[in-house]
Amino acid sequence: MTVVFIHLKVTPSKISSALNEIKKIDYIKEAYVVTGDYDIIAKLETPDASLASKIIIEKILKIDGVERSSSSIVLPQTD
């Protein structure tokens, strides 16, 4: 399982519609409008990193209003 937190900068007038589109994407578990350097944060859970990359590039970054993104992959916990 690959878990990715995706931080998105979105054109202000498109934030609401972009959030709605993101929530429709398979494997998106949560998505919120947030304060700070980015406008939306989304949690993506996929079976592998390859699929996560494909979803980000082919779906999320093509949503109208999305200007840029920064992604953080959750690392496995080691004890």
From TrEMBL:
Pfam families reported for this sequence: AsnC_trans_reg
Domain Transcription regulator AsnC/Lrp ligand binding: 6-75
Organism: Odinarchaeota yellowstonii (strain LCB_4)
Protein name: Lrp/AsnC ligand binding domain-containing protein
Taxonomy, superkingdom: Archaea
InterPro entries on file: Dimeric_a/b-barrel, Tscrpt_reg_AsnC/Lrp_C
